[in-house]
Amino acid sequence: MAAVTSFYVADGPDRFLSDACTAGPWGPDSQHGGPPAALLTRAIEGLARDESRVLGRFTMELLGPVPVASLRVDAAVVRPGRSVEMCEATLYDEARGRACARATAWLFPATDDGPDPSDRPLPHGPDDGEPKQRPASWSPGYLDAVDWRWIVGSVGEPGPGTVWMRPLVDLVDGEPMDPMQRLMTCVDSASGVSAALDIAVWAFLNTELTVHVLRRPVGEWVCLDAETTLGSGSVGLATSSVYDERGLVARSSQALLVAKR
Fold first, then answer.
1. Of 74, 102, 142, 163, which sits most exposed with the smallest number of CB within 10 A?
2. To the nearest 10°, the Cα dihedral for 127, 130, 131, 133?
3. How far apart are CA 59 and CA 211, in angstroms?
4. β-bridge pairing 6-10 and 170-172
5. Strand, helix or coil at 205?
6. What pLDDT score was predicted for residue 169?
7. What angle do CA 59, 230, 122 make, to 5 degrees?
8. 190 Cβ partners below 8 Å, 6+ apart?
């Protein structure tokens, strides 16, 4: 059997076949949020007329489970502008003919003459992290398609976590994954990195993902320093500071549906 090399295989200009490695930890039939976020980012990047724009804010609404199946992506500029513009991309479940995820993104001018960002690299890197086994109760798929190097915590250990991540496969077969797509592939994992409850008893599913990006990421590794805050009911919030080899590159947040299994 040939080794898996990508999350998706293109089946035309806007259609994609999903590999089993897109599956999330809850079961083999629905995808982890990371690959769809990256696929929507790819569609939005495809709208750019040139390299004069950079993604500054990305929000993905999960309208339902994203199936491990054939998907279609549409994208458009919905608010053009000389300085900033808003783009939208929608992911469709081809079999059911319904939208399953939608993203909006603000694009900003790409420039190097802004204020000094004073980048501060983290005191640790991927080589300082420790690979750990995923919980036996979590399904294979996405979790096995990513290289995890844990600095603090683990995916099966309740509490805040810090982990360096690197996808082991491309986003789309035959295409190198660019740094922004790589960041989006990883950042949806913040709620799992910082799971605050016993995963055998509780489910915590994010309904959306919002990422504020400070600059274009660099390198092949992404670090999430994540924490989950619980309300007294069904609402939780997972947040993370996101780093690359230069320092802070983004911050993320996810609204969580928290429910007993």
1. 74
2. -170
3. 6
4. parallel
5. strand
6. 97
7. 65
8. 224, 226, 238, 239, 240, 252, 254
